[in-house]
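Incident log, structure service

09:12 report received: a user says their structure output differs between two submissions of the same chain.
09:20 pulled the input from the user's history:
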Amino acid sequence: MDVVVPALTSTEAVVAGHISLDLFPGLQGPVTLEPGRLVEVGPVVISTGGAVANTGVALHRLGVRVRLVGKVGADLFGRAILDSLADRDGDLAADMIVSPVDATSYTIVFNPPGVDRSFLHCPGANQTFSADDVRYELLAGVRVFHFGYPPLMREMYAAGGAQLRRLFERVHSAGPATSLDLSEPDPESEAGRVAWEQVLSRVLPFVDVFAPSIDELLFMLDRPAHAQLQAEADLSAVVDRTRLAELGDVLLGMGAAVVAIKLGDQGLYLRTAQETARISAFCDRIGLAAEAWRGREVLAPCFAARRVAGTTGSGDCTIAGLLAALLRGEDPADAATSATAVGACSIEALDPTSAIPPWPRVAARLASGWPRLRVDIELGRNVTVERDPAGTLTILS
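09:34 re-ran on a clean worker, output below:
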């Protein structure tokens, strides 16, 4: 029987879903693995990983009272994850589930300088995480619930996403605003063959904030465009503002209130529902001004990092920045700015969260005139935009 430690109370946010132990071998350049060959590497950096650790710990570092719900095994890696969380805050590991029969998930991250990342991943205990692993009675008073990486969690995508829908339906009925992030599965895996458009159409009516990356979204909704993006490695050659708006409309049409599409070094695209009833229902759950959030379209460029040490988990931390902004009551442009600022902090360390400071320090950096990166995505002709002092674009027409 799985063991659950009693939960902490008075939390603002719950982050649930995938968790793993990430190992980052020290690499000086690209690595080629060949049979019988020994490749010398540097010291390894070990970090908690996955949406629960990345988004959850980032929220904690920003000053949000957060509870984490994930599943690990009763093994060395599981103890390492629990100890790491407890070392940050004794309460962070309080709701973690320890399975006596499953292995803990781990990922070996190959992140050589100047080369895109690659991964070796063992899903482990995440595969058996189900809707029944969330203690819904503890959600009373929680303002936001975030779930991450269902494509790496077999129970969540099996049977057309029945468990994922059940989870979000129950959380929604419990009261918090809901948020969902994805991950891109191996195309040759069981998850890669799932009809994800059908899964999303079943789940998004119960999702307030849907925050996928553009790669994940194209994989699930437009495989030819995804293949083109993989071949060209140039987002601006595949996606423009019109295409982003079309994708946003599809997802809003499926039921989401807010769509936040992560665009890598091109920033964050935010689109919100036009329907007053839908956006009001979301805003009432988390305490936002509905009219400020209705029918908005925002593009927030990335901020320039002091150094780029590693990008693994930066998207999760961007989501943490967005959710923390929602909890502070920010409007769409400010929330998108906050999200990309936290994402930029994340990449200044090899692991996802250690470079993220408390929110007042991020805010001070923003106030100092933090420079932003150039956006190459074509906005289109005759598009009216408004640029705020921080450099975030609000698309007016």
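09:41 both user submissions now match this output. Likely a transient worker issue. Closing.
09:42 reviewer note: DSSP finds 13 helices and 17 strands in the chain. Residues 3-30+42-395 form a domain with the UDP-N-acetylmuramoyl-L-alanine:D-glutamate ligase fold (CATH 3.40.1190.20).
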